[in-house]
Amino acid sequence: MFNKILIANRGEIAVRIIRACKELGIQSLAVYSDADKDALHVRLADGAVCIGPARSTESYLNVTSLISTVQVADAEAIHPGYGFLAENSAFVEACEKCGIKFIGPTSDVMKIMGNKVHAKRVAEEAKVPVLAWSEHAVTDEKEALEIACRIGFPVLIKASSGGGGKGMKLVHTKGSLVSSFRTARMEALAAFGDDEVFIEQYCESPRHVEIQIMADQFGNVIHLGERECSIQRRHQKILEEAPCPALDGRLRNRMGDAAIKLCKAIRYTGVGTVEFLLDSNNKFYFMEMNTRVQVEHPVTEMVTGIDIVREQIKLAAKRRLRIKQRSVQMRGHSIECRVNAEDPDTFLPSPGKIEELILPGGPGVRVDTGVYQGSTVSPYYDSLVAKIIVHADTRPEAITRMERALDEFHIKGIKTNVPLHQKILKDHDFIAGNTDINFISRYS
Ligand code: MV4
Q1: CATH number 3.40.50.300 is the correct assignment for the domain at 132-201
Q2: For the chain, first and last CA: distance in Å?
Q3: Fewest Cβ atoms closer than 10 Å to its Cβ: which of 313, 326, 353, 419?
Q4: Which CATH number, 3.40.50.20, 3.90.580.10, 3.40.50.2000, 3.40.1280.10, labels domain 4-103?
């Protein structure tokens, strides 16, 4: 096992990783920016090194500083968390060259999944269902039109380097295709430095359902069931749950098997998430794969009892997967609410000093946070301040428990989106389990 791990992240996920390190007897080394000198992750880690100014490009994204910090501190591995460098294959390559273990997949596997054309191609080759598409990147306008007509309108134009919703254009008619195609390529170039796009059949009002997977370095792959993540705004998830109310055991097994097939096809290692669109006829289609631990991983931990971050570290240390697929059982229901420092009406960030903080607790309630009373929410980073996670025997009980937990939650000094969560939990469609990706736009 590793002796010391550098945690190349901040906030609640850095705290989450430090906790896993402690329980595994691994020393944790935090890094922080000037803005984070009093942050919770700095206080909880065994050691901490300042790596630069507040702006993340000069600190949490500073590859040279991170690698030299690992070397000076004599650590063996880097845990990237999510965001920042977690899906940057150039960073993974730099780690590999320096003999530092990156806690995640290899750089070549990450590169494949980072390119959505390559990702779709390997999914298709592995016989994982995908929506009709152009089968390759498209550059020629006449060909784009032919492909769109063959697929049938509406179609989506997606950026190869996109993902997470960035760089998509919906096209309803033949007449508007070419101009949208030009715009999509220009926007992709501006956003990702890569104008490669492809064309895909549009799926109307699907659910976002994702499968958690775990793979060791000996070819063993298991899945930990699904998470329902449809409730999002501008591609930022707000509330997630496990299991998905639309799945039965049979569909879960089929989606889980598809995710495992994809991972085996690319020899994936570590933990990861395979994202699917699930349409109203319960047909599912591969969308993309996330090669990191996700914000919403706790709902899977709550229903399976498996510590995903602990397992992730063990897998990186070349341990064999000890958990067998048949022993993975989903018990009860879990919901996570992301509490963001934002104005509940305008959705604009609301940074500032947390003057008072009372966190919920009691049976079936877990809070993952990187803040405390007296600490400051910086405008430099994302606005997630806490994840409130509940677990109960049934979905209705989980909803009631979350309402109770949100009621206990008290914060002064910053505004949060707690009122939005309270509204969602009272929504009749939500209560009925009728959520799709347009849920928030319907009423908020
Ligand atoms: C789609 C789609 C409908 N049809 N692809 C958004 C994030 C990126 N991973 C892909 N996304 C979508 N791809 C087809 N062919 C709808 C979305 C989409 C979406 C997906 C999941 C969660 C929220 C979403 C919000 C808007 C659009």
Answers
A1: no
A2: 48
A3: 326
A4: 3.40.50.20
